[in-house]
Amino acid sequence: MEPRDIEGDLTEILIDEEQIRARLAELCRVIEKDYAGKDLLLVGVLKGAVMVMADLARELVHPITMDWMAVSSYGSGTQSSGVVRILKDLDTDLHGRNVLIVEDIIDSGLTLSWLLANLKSRGPESVEICALLRKPAAARVDIDVKYLGFDIPNQFVVGYGLDFDERYRNLRSVGVLAPHIYA
Ligand code: IMP
Ligand code: MG
């Protein structure tokens, strides 16, 4: 759906569909160079990364395989605690593999920091991160993101996979959720 279909629920459109498409294409050209001649396993983090995974994978001119993980971060409400539980693990053995974690957004960074350490402990050749969005002002741990789409302000955003209460994932753009929705 388009922002006009949920008029009033957003205060602002931060990044539109075309900007996302163009930026992902740029990232794919770099990824193709970096992994030339190498195998590449994309690991998507459910559910938020579904859209970025689908578009990134299709834009890549490189043979890839895909796998998925679902994790939940213990903590109250919208605050990440860094204590992570695996809800769905990978089906793939990571020994000797080049892993690229595909994420929707890095907020505090706690979830990804845990995931990075977890995947690195499984004997892969390499583990890197690709994230569409990052909120630098919210960072609680330093994360080395090799492929980043956009830095955004420290506001709650929805769309392109990102949800509020499981809604808005199918919005084509990324927008700032209006406060009256979560009040
Ligand atoms: P972190 O551990 O704080 O980095 O948590 C990151 C996770 O929180 C992301 O993968 C999202 O699922 C969720 N998240 C963080 N910020 C937002 C947001 O602005 N909108 C929707 N989900 C968010
Ligand atoms: Mg996520």
UniProtKB/TrEMBL annotation:
The gene is hpt. Signal peptide: none annotated. This is Hypoxanthine phosphoribosyltransferase. One of its GO terms (cellular component) is cytosol. Pathway: Purine metabolism; IMP biosynthesis via salvage pathway; IMP from hypoxanthine: step 1/1; Purine metabolism; GMP biosynthesis via salvage pathway; GMP from guanine: step 1/1. Keywords: Cytoplasm, Glycosyltransferase, Magnesium, Metal-binding, Nucleotide-binding, Purine salvage, Transferase. It is found in: Cytoplasm. GO terms for biological process: GMP salvage; guanine salvage; hypoxanthine metabolic process; IMP salvage; purine ribonucleoside salvage. It is an enzyme of class 2 (transferase). Its cofactor is Mg(2+). Its EC number is 2.4.2.8. One of its GO terms (molecular function) is hypoxanthine phosphoribosyltransferase activity. It comes from the Bacteria. Transmembrane segments: none annotated. Gene3D superfamilies: 3.40.50.2020. Residues 18-164 form the Phosphoribosyltransferase domain. It catalyses: GMP + diphosphate = guanine + 5-phospho-alpha-D-ribose 1-diphosphate; IMP + diphosphate = hypoxanthine + 5-phospho-alpha-D-ribose 1-diphosphate. The lineage of its organism: Bacteria, Bacillati, Actinomycetota, Actinomycetes, Micrococcales. Belongs to the purine/pyrimidine phosphoribosyltransferase family.
